[in-house]
Design brief:
The complex is a heterodimer of chains A (124) and B (442). With 124 residues, chain A is of the alpha/beta class. Helices cover 43% and strands 22% of the residues of chain A. Chain A has a single domain, classed as Rossmann fold (3-Layer(aba) Sandwich), CATH 3.40.50.2300. Chain B has 2 domains: 3-153; 270-442, Histidine kinase-like ATPase, C-terminal domain (Heat Shock Protein 90, 2-Layer Sandwich), CATH 3.30.565. Chain B has helices spanning 3-19, 25-45, 52-71, 80-84, 87-102, 104-109, 111-228, 231-266, 278-296, 319-344, 407-418, and strands at residues 274-276, 303-308, 315-317, 351-359, 370-377, 422-428, 432-440. The interface between A and B is medium-sized, with 25 and 27 residues. Chain B: This is histidine kinase.
């Protein structure tokens, strides 16, 4: 299962790689990373069919996670559309509502609970 | 007509007595004056067996004696004019008496003329007296008027002094209020920062927590690998753990720096200029300002562009103060794009840019090298009508309670007055604004 993680913080990358160390080793998941919404869209242009799950931060400079989500839903409607989970430090009602309105599948708050995330992955 | 000088002497005594009636001189001079007057009357009343011309001479001499005596008294200095008025009478009386003595026939032929002379001299006294009375009245009026004016001047002076004291008090109060307002402005901007700071600290803290948690798991795995004897994998895990510990340290320091910066921002300025890299401050406050606004309005998002010249030299500045200026400029820029986004909505892409660069010293001389920081936004811009007002203290376009109106005025004080720099503003309503700060390198 290919997962694209979009976050402007570069250190998110080693964190995911280590948290999912076993799963990566057992080839259960595979990670790719983008540091901005723009970068993520570029990546998806080539590989959207491979990506099953997109985990995106909302609050990023430039294109926000919500905008990225809108683009994903508009540009890649071909079934099966990727599962998109939004992640934000601001876990308030408004953010949640906005993400869900734009078609997010789930909404996670920082700090990320990796055990919870792993549970959710099993259901995909 | 020998009694003219005597009557004059009597009236003179009477007159002076009256004049000094209510003064301290009365007790000293009352009786001597009465006596002088009394002698004159007694002389008239006495049955005299002497020639009239001789009597006239005696009375003239007596009048002269009385006048000269009084004139010599220190107490009657102010009566000199009055006393001198008697001298013509003395003179005419004496001339009449002497003429009658030396040329009696001539005198008798012209007696009426001589009597007229004495009468004229006698009248002269009272004429003189009345004019001097008028003069004195005039003088008294003038002095009363002067007293009145002096009282008015004193009252006015007291009033002015009171007003001046009140003004000084007011100025003191204003200075105290100004100091309070500056402190309030600092706290207000700190308030705007709090959310940004919380966000900025939360991120590194998340990393600290996550990397330490994952490292604990990795140690368990490493132990398992070592038990299995797979030393290669164990070493790989150890390398990861080391890397994680470095990350933990890095993010710990990041949070530490933010807290220190926040404390520095709220602390009263030390006014100590230290070599500072403007890029560091610009970058730090750029993000803090952005997250500050985002915390207030979650729907807000903007493109942040930082073009920071890596070759920027360190310059001597009071970093908290200049940081405060930058924070203010960033907050304004985000506010402007946010306002525009609210009015236009939809397609508008908010964009705020900060750039730094070195301006080399002009080859022709006239000033050294400078560094320039430009804060540019594509927000609502500044209407021409208020362009010359925005630097004024207390001027704000924000709704009541949202801005102190001191931000730019304090910025001006900090950049122009304290750092000998410049603030230039280019703005077009509806298109955006550029705030350009230049600071001398040395």
């Amino acid at each position: 299962m290919k997962i694209l993680v979009v976050d402007d913080e570069a250190d998110v990358q080693p964190l995911f790689l280590q948290r999912f160390r076993k799963e990566i080793k057992n080839h259960e998941v595979e990670f790719d990373f983008a540091q901005s919404g723009e970068e993520a869209l570029d990546y998806l242009k080539g590989k959207h069919s491979e990506v099953v799950l997109i985990l995106s931060d909302i609050n990023m400079p430039g294109m926000s996670g919500i905008e990225l989500l809108t683009h994903i839903r508009e540009d890649f409607p071909t079934p099966p559309p990727p599962v998109v989970m939004m992640i934000t430090a601001y876990g308030d009602e408004e953010n949640y509502k906005q993400a869900m309105d734009k078609g997010a599948d789930d909404f996670l708050t920082k700090p990320l609970d990796f055990n919870l995330l792993k549970e959710k992955l099993k259901t995909i | 007509m020998y009694f003219f000088p005597l009557i004059a002497a009597f009236l003179l005594a009477l007159r002076i007595n009256k004049a000094i009636k209510f003064t301290a001189l009365r007790s000293k001079w009352r009786w001597p004056l009465n006596i002088l007057g009394g002698i004159a009357i007694a002389f008239i009343l006495l049955d005299k067996q002497v020639d009239e011309d001789r009597l006239l001479l005696i009375s003239a001499v007596y009048l002269l004696a009385v006048v000269e005596y009084l004139k010599r008294q220190e107490d009657f200095k102010s009566f000199t004019v009055l006393l001198n008025a008697y001298l013509p009478l003395v003179g005419t009386a004496m001339i009449s008496a002497l003429t009658a003595r030396v040329a009696p026939t001539f005198y008798e032929n012209n007696e009426a003329f001589f009597i007229c002379g004495q009468l004229a001299a006698f009248s002269w006294i009272y004429l003189r007296l009345s004019t001097s009375k008028k003069q004195q009245q005039e003088l008294r009026r003038i002095s009363e008027r002067r007293d009145e004016l002096e009282a008015m001047v004193a009252a006015r002076t007291a009033e002015i002094t009171k007003q001046r004291n009140e003004l000084q008090e007011t100025v003191k109060e204003l200075q105290a209020t100004q100091a309070q307002l500056i402190q309030q402005e600092k706290l207000a901007s700190l308030g705007e920062l709090t959310a940004g700071i919380a966000h900025e600290i939360q991120n590194p803290l998340n990393f600290v927590n996550n990397f330490s948690e994952v490292s604990m798991e990795l140690i368990d795995e490493m132990e398992a690998e070592m038990a299995k004897g797979d030393m290669e994998e164990a070493n790989a895990i150890a390398a990861d753990i080391k890397q994680n510990l470095e990350k933990i340290r890095h993010h710990g320091q990041r949070a530490d720096g933010i807290v220190k910066g926040m404390l520095q921002h709220s602390r009263a300025s030390s006014n100590v200029k230290e070599p500072t890299n403007l890029n560091t401050i610009a970058d730090e406050y750029f993000r803090l300002a952005y997250h500050g606004l985002r915390a207030k309005d979650k729907s807000f998002n903007a493109e942040l562009v930082a073009n920071l010249d890596p070759n920027l030299p360190s310059i001597n500045i009071v970093s908290q103060d200049v940081g405060r200026v930058l924070l203010n400029m960033f907050t304004n820029a985000f506010y402007a794009v946010h306002q525009k986004q609210k009015t236009i909505g939809g397609d508008f892409k908010p964009r705020v840019e900060v750039s730094t660069r070195v301006i080399p010293a002009p080859p022709s001389g006239g000033g050294g090298a400078q560094v320039e920081i430009m804060v540019k936004d594509n927000g609502s811009g500044i209407p021409d009508a208020i362009k010359d007002k925005i630097m004024q203290p207390f001027f704000t376009t924000k709704p009541a309670g949202e801005g102190t109106g001191l931000g730019l005025s304090l910025s001006y004080d900090i950049i122009v007055k304290a750092h000998k720099g410049h603030i230039n503003i280019n703005s077009k309503e509806g298109e955006g604004s550029e705030f350009i700060i230049t600071l001398p390198v040395a």
